[in-house]
């Protein structure tokens, strides 16, 4: 691309494309015609008034006398006076008028004759009288448009300036005649032995001020007739030339259209205006064009290399716009830099680079697809994959293969995500440096307050800040990064058991994850909630203790009684013996019954049904009536306010729970006391609920025992040997499984009040 840029820059443009741009720039920079340049036109109206062309030379002499009297700054007569006119003394009159004016320039026309190129010069008398001569040739480019001139042309060793330049020089000649007039006088006899080659010097571009009709143009006849006052031409450049069709030479220029042309005198007016305004459009040198094209191409190549395709496209368009702006700016400064080569290079760099980039990408993706096809599990392959690739061209096949690879990648990613989310434990995927890469749904729920979904990834220390510090590693105090990611022999898994701020117990496992080549990829950290497992282990130990101690005690008592009864000296009376046996058996049955009910309360199989709370409380009180009556205790039920409160509960379990509370109240209340069971509804914005208070007048519970009153296998009164502390644990389990709460308030020596709150479905 750089070599091509140098070659196009050396050619200094792309021909017609640059000519088109140049012409439009010329049109865009047209300016007002100067007031001191006037064209006296030999137009159709003048020919109709003065007769057919050519006119008598006394007519031109009369025009020159008018311009001389008006003191015109300079006169350029674009009329060929190469042959004598045998009418009276017309030639003498014109020669005299030329001599009197002193600032008139006549044209030189170089024509091809049988003898070769020869200059067609004015008559010697006119040459001697004129201020100077100027060639009237224009340079034509490949499309036939006049864009430039040679300021000097040489033939047979004689030089002539351009016609407009000669007029400009005549205006500043201080009444001195141009030297080229005398040198031309000997041209007729100086041709022998000279090279028949026309040479031009100082090629210049014409700074067109405007198109046809842009300059002040006055009809020839209007000047002769005095319609235009002579003072109008004072201190002005006057160009006299033909504009009438048939006698005027017309040319295509940048400021003309396909349907019009510009006369030679108007082109000379534009050239003269440029000389007056000191405008000179120069063309950039080859090295400048090469540098301009090369720099533009280099920037486009760098954009494609270091920017994304979209960014490179934007920069390519920006460079094309910048080249256009620079070209326009340089043209305003009268420097023409052909931009089409630079624009072309900038424009073609992007598609060529994109093609090469696409080829490389397709080749790479083809290799990766083949590799992926070998390693993808069959479960992730689709049955119609092969069908999609057939019956298509190469690009379609590559796109189909990429689409299949992308689908497999997405399927694999979804497969990993689904498996990660299906894990029952919170799982984190960390990089080798401890940065969080992935996490599952359980981790998001557990660590939600740490902002795992935010753009800023939390640190490992922040994630594990809610856990107790990990155990020491070796002899140093460790942090979580060192504890979880430290290198073990063979990078084996690490297991740490700890607690969080909610006293939950967790087993944290950190296992290495490796890439296909065996190198380390990162770490997979699992947080296993073992709170229930540890609680179950403790419950198992308590159950074993219960079975080995509390349930064995009554059985051991029965065996001891039997041993004593066999010995006549220690035997009890039969009624007393049976009473003791009966009491031990009842104790065993009660213990077993409490244990079974607690296990049922902890199970998942509740038989829910809609029932009113007042009937539940009444039935529980009826069940405890005989027990209360035996101790002369009265149970007062006040539940008329909750007659319309319906609950969705397991009726038998809830009656049993209420019965346990009443049984404890009766057991620890003195004879003749009263137990009050009251219930009332409560309505809030979140719904309705029923609150039940069961109050006794027993000895109360100490503050130290209140904290663990609902724990299983705990007795609030160690003197009570009829139970093992399962009753209140059962009550708490049943109430909480029904989305309720239970609280207790107690004063030692005055009694206790248990408060149950349960949500209503109707009420």
UniProtKB/TrEMBL annotation:
SUPFAM superfamilies: ATPase domain of HSP90 chaperone/DNA topoisomerase II/histidine kinase, Homodimeric domain of signal transducing histidine kinase, PYP-like sensor domain (PAS domain). Residues 546-762 form the Histidine kinase domain. The keyword Transcription does not apply. Its EC number is 2.7.13.3. PROSITE patterns: HIS_KIN. It catalyses: ATP + protein L-histidine = ADP + protein N-phospho-L-histidine. This is histidine kinase. It comes from Herminiimonas glaciei.
């Amino acid at each position: 691309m750089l070599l091509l840029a140098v070659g196009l820059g050396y050619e200094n443009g792309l021909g017609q494309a640059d000519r088109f741009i140049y012409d439009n720039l010329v049109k865009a920079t047209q300016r007002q015609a100067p007031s001191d340049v006037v064209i006296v036109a030999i137009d159709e109206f003048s020919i109709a008034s003065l007769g057919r062309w050519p006119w008598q030379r006394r007519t031109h002499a009369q025009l020159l006398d008018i311009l001389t009297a008006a003191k015109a700054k300079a006169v350029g007569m674009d009329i060929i006076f190469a042959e004598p006119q045998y009418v009276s003394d017309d030639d003498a009159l014109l020669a005299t008028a030329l001599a009197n004016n002193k600032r008139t320039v006549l044209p030189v026309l170089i024509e091809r004759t049988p003898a070769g190129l020869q200059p067609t010069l004015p008559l010697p008398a006119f040459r001697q009288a004129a201020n100077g001569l100027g060639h009237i040739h224009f340079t034509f480019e490949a499309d036939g448009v006049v864009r430039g001139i040679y300021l000097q042309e040489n033939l047979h060793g004689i030089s002539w300036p351009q016609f407009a330049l000669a007029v400009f020089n005549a205006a500043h000649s201080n009444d001195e005649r141009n030297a080229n007039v005398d040198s031309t006088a000997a041209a007729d006899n100086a041709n022998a032995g000279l090279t028949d080659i026309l040479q031009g010097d100082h090629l210049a571009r014409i700074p067109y001020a405007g198109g046809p009709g842009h300059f002040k143009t006055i009809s020839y006849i209007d000047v002769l007739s005095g319609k235009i006052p002579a003072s109008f031409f004072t201190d002005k450049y006057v160009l006299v030339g033909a504009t009438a069709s048939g006698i005027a030479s017309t040319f295509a220029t940048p400021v003309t259209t396909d349907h019009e042309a510009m006369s030679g005198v108007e082109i000379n007016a534009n050239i003269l205006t440029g000389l007056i305004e000191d405008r000179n459009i120069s063309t950039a040198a080859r090295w400048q064009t090469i540098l301009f094209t090369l720099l533009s191409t280099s920037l486009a190549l760098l954009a494609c290399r270091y920017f994304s395709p979209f960014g490179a496209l934007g920069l390519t368009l920006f460079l094309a716009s910048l080249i256009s702006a620079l070209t326009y700016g340089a043209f305003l400064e009268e420097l023409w830099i052909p931009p089409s080569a630079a624009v072309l290079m900038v424009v073609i760099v992007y598609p060529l680079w994109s093609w090469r980039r696409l080829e490389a990408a397709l080749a790479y993706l083809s290799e990766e697809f083949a590799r992926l096809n070998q390693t993808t599990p069959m479960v992730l392959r689709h049955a119609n994959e092969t069908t999609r690739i057939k019956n298509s061209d190469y690009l379609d096949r590559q796109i189909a293969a990429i689409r299949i690879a992308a689908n497999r990648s997405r399927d694999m990613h979804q497969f990993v995500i689904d498996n990660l989310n299906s894990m029952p434990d919170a799982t984190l995927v960390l990089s080798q440096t401890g940065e969080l890469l992935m996490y599952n749904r359980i981790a998001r729920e557990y660590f939600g307050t740490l902002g795992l979904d935010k753009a800023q990834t939390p640190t490992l220390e922040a994630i594990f800040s809610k856990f107790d510090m990990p155990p020491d590693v070796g002899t140093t105090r460790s942090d979580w990064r060192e504890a979880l990611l430290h290198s073990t022999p063979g990078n084996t898994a690490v297991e740490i058991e700890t607690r969080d701020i909610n006293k939950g117990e967790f087993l944290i496992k950190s296992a290495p994850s490796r890439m296909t080549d065996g190198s380390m990829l990162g770490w997979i950290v699992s947080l296993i909630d073992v709170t229930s497992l540890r609680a179950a282990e403790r419950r198992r130990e308590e159950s074993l203790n219960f079975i080995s101690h509390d349930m064995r005690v009554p059985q051991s008592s029965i065996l001891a009684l039997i041993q004593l009864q066999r010995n006549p000296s220690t035997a009890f009376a039969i009624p007393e013996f049976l009473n003791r046996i009966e009491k031990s058996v009842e104790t065993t049955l009660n213990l077993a019954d409490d244990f079974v009910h607690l296990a049922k309360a902890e199970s998942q199989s509740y038989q829910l049904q809609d029932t009113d709370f007042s009937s539940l409380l009444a039935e529980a009180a009826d069940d405890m009536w005989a027990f209360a009556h035996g101790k002369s205790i009265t149970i007062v039920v006040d539940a008329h306010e909750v007659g319309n409160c319906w609950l969705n509960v397991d009726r038998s379990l809830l009656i049993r729970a209420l019965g346990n509370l009443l049984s404890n109240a009766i057991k620890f209340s003195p004879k003749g006391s009263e137990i009050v069971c009251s219930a009332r509804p409560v309505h809030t914005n979140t719904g309705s609920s029923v609150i039940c208070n069961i109050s006794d007048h027993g000895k109360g519970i100490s503050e130290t025992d209140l904290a663990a009153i609902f724990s299983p296998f705990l007795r609030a009164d160690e003197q009570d040997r009829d139970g093992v502390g399962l009753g209140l644990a059962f009550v708490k389990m049943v109430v909480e499984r029904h989305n309720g709460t239970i609280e207790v308030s107690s004063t030692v020596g005055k009694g206790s009040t248990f408060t149950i709150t349960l949500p209503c479905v109707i009420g």
